[in-house]
Amino acid sequence: MDKLKRNIKLIFVVFSVLFISLILYLTYFTAVEREQLIKSSYNRRLWEQEEKVMRGTIYDSKGRPLAETGFEGGTKRRIYNGGKAIGPLIGYSDRVLGRAGIENVFNGELLGVSEQDPVTLLRQKILGVSEQGSDVYLTIDLDLQKTAYDLFQGRKGALVALEPQTGRILALVSSPGYDPSTVKQDWEKLSKDENKPLINRATQGLYPPGSAFKIITLAGALTYNPEIEYEKFYTPGYIKVSGSIIRDGQHLWPGEYDLNTAFRYSSNTVFIQIGQRVEREKMIEMAEAFGFNASNKSDIPIAKSTFPRPPVIGGDVEMAESFIGQGRILSTPVQMAQVAAIIANDGKMVTPYIAQKIVSPLGTEISKAPKASTTQVVSSEVARKIKALMVDVVKSGTGTAAAISGIEVAGKTGSAENPHGQAHAWFVGFAPAENPKIAVAVVVENAGSGGSVAGPIARGVISKYLSDITR
Amino acid sequence: MSRRPPDFAILFTVLILVCFGMIMVFSSSSVRAYYFYNDSFYFFKRQLAWSILGFIAMIFFMNYDYWKIKKYEKLIVFVMLLLLVLVLIPGIGKKVNEARRWIGIGALTIQPSEIAKLGMIIYLSCGLERKGVKVQSFFGGVLPFLLVMGVVCALILKEPHLSATVLIGITTLILLFVGGAKMTHMIGMGACGFVLALMLAISKPYRLKRLLSFLDPWANPSEEGYHIIQSLYALGSGGLIGVGIGQSRQKFFYLPEPQTDFIFSVIGEELGFIGAAFVIIMFMFFIWRGYRTAMAAPDVFGKLMATGITSLIALQFLINVAVVTASVPVTGMPLPFISYGGSSLTITMSQIGILLNISRYAEVK
Asked: Mean pLDDT of residues grouped by 10 in chain B (365 residues)?
């Protein structure tokens, strides 16, 4: 009999554990999984909500509406302001096409379904604003966005501009774009277009960064071998790595150069030499500290930039190619803008974000800006040295096309070889060098030399922004 | 033995759950009832009728001394097997949704598998009490029970009714364990059962596909994953306090069978986390009282009966909630006391009657 009792007790304990885990799971579900579920675009309830609710407005950083809901002949309509320059960024929300861009990411807020607090819900009901979504204020500057988009003149590419101290995204351009107001009528054409205007290249485009990546190689080298600053390097115009030959660009004659000249003229040979002197693992860690291989921490989806680790990258050749941004390294334009911003921000981490605040129909504001990071990616001393070298690139190196009179611009160019034709042109930089206000990354697909094609676009955006904020 | 009042805690917990169930059945089924039968109260009225019948059965068994059941052991096993065979014969058994699970005339239909759940508990409790310590041996002890269970499970599987099969299998194992079967035998049987279940799952491709859909319902949101996703939406929409009673959206044909297998989702949607937690806590309280009665029962038969009944209800509850929260594969399992269930509600309440009767003789210190 006692044994029986003991057995029953054991069964009871087992069931109790199961019940308790059930309650714990339910708590977790309500607290965590729920929110993602509610906003999922598969959720049909949201489309129902869509009909009842006045979808909130999306504003730019100066309070100009980028997307708002208005009435036209008694039916609700979404009105977009900004044309092709904002299409890939803002996206659309349509029952047939689905959702994309900011309209998709902040759908829950715009529909007002993310509100959890029962007291607020009750107040909204009483005040009669429960049928209204929240407004989303972006960090984007519409003027800058348009200027940048026009500078591409329809060429394929992307531009990202950040405020280096905060990570605020000032402009996020993907070219060619599309006009969200007419996306439904144009759908057939847009979805078949070979230039893929529906894709946001700035966040989803993965490109080899080419020589623009040398900023990271330099950061690794200066951190672990600071003496290279005073050394001279010999280049015969090419370097042999395990039998393969990697050549310099056209800017340098064979000879002996210091670090400054090698960076200014972007010598592949020298950068492979200094990269090889740093332990492999340390170099990969440096790239990861800058944001490669890391999961997205921004408030919009950004594709993961990758610096493959062994065994994905094979031998010395692929590692050597990595030091000059070729091989298997892939980066989004946002990632490269982040690299520039980190150097501009004295080596401190910068996380890009796009939503400044959410304002509910009751007027309560929720700030979305993340706290400024104090994580040091590279020491401020190393960041200062890299900055000085980047200033010289624009003053008298490959990046002169980005120079602006009266303002010291820091930058690095890149011409990334790729299997799709001519090299992708890169320019990554920031200005003014002594007190950076804006960091940019520009990529123009299959356009050839980074300095001459991407440089002027960066110059245009930087000078526009700096003249706007000083006016 | 002197008879005392029954455990009122069990009695009231069950009555609260049944009344709560009635409200939820009405709330979740009214839309479908109106659409299919032109009467919003269609399911509610039937649930009311069956629960009144169940209440009468419960009062009857509460006053019917449980050890008298032992006399009818052979008859019960015979009727159980007979019904299980009869239901398989086309013309006698009614086919609903590709499964022949129902038997009866007009509105008075029952599922033989429901009878089998109680029948097996009675059979095992009688048998194990008779066997005593002999249950320690394999051939003379455990094997005969396993053979009977095997036959019953095979018949139910033929209907097919997978969830009832699993339920009877696990309940049998629990009773054998409590009844004193050797640990080595238990582990062996558990392993065999697992392998058998695995083979059954693989034997039919649709089963495997449906079984695995819970792991990632999003892989196929419009087919295998559909039900579970709709259930998660229901729970997700509820939040802390729910959208309010009667306000569920998911019951509008998004959820399959919102009044039976997915009623917990509707509770979660309309009454939120608080409503769902309330139900879980009520059941937890119930099983505590149930096992407490089992431990205090005066004889082996009473102990085993109380354990079997409590375990059966606890298992059904856990499996149902696990299904709607996508923790285990989708299988049709009603929520005891709460789901719209027709005759199964009456049978469940009869079981509670037996449990209450045992509690009248329990020697709680």
From this structure: 87 95 88 79 89 94 93 94 90 78 78 92 94 83 90 90 89 92 86 84 70 66 68 76 76 73 86 91 95 93 95 94 79 87 89 95 77
- Domain containing residue A270: 210-354+370-469
- The ipTM of this complex is 0.89
> What is the per-residue pLDDT across B148-165, written as a single tens digit (0 to 9) for each?
999 999 999 888 888 899
pLDDT of residue B184: 87
What residues of B are in contact with residue A118 (Cβ under 8 Å)?
240-241
Enumerate the H helices of A29-117 as residue ranges. 34-39, 44-52, 87-90, 101-105, 107-111
Q: What pLDDT was estimated at residue B364? A: 67
Interchain pair B314, A25: CB under 8 A? no
- Spatial contact of B300 and B266, defined as CB atoms under 8 Å apart: no
Q: Has residue A185 been placed in a domain?
A: no
- Tally of domains in chain A: 1
* Structural domain contains residue A289: yes
Identify whether B258 is preceded by a cis peptide bond (ω within 30 of 0): no
Query: Does a structural domain hold residue A302?
Result: yes
| Residue A439 included in any domain | yes
Of B221, B229, B239, the CB nearest to A30: B239
pLDDT tens for residues A449-462? 877 899 999 999 99
Q: Please, what is the end-to-end C-alpha distance for chain B in angstroms?
A: 16
Q: What pairs with residue A98 in β-bridges?
A: A94
> What is the CATH number for A274?
3.40.710.10
What is the per-residue pLDDT for B219? 62
The tens digit of pLDDT for each residue in A285-294 reads: 999 999 999 9
What is the enclosing helix (H) or strand (E) of A359?
A: strand A355-359
Nearest of A394, A246, A424 to residue A324 by alpha carbon: A246
- CB contacts of B314 in chain A (<8 Å) are 15, 19
Q: Per DSSP, what are the bridge partners of residue A17?
A: none
Answer whether B341's CB lies under 8 Å from B351's CB. no
pTM of the model: 0.60
At B160, is the secondary structure helix, strand, or coil?
coil
Q: Which residues neighbour A122 within 8 Å (Cβ) at sequence distance 6 or greater? A: none
Determine contact, residues A368/A355, Cβ cutoff 8 Å: yes
Cβ contacts of B29 within 8 Å, gap of 6 or more: B42, B43, B44, B251, B258, B259, B340
Task: Say yes or no: B255 contacts chain A, CB-CB below 8 A.
Answer: no
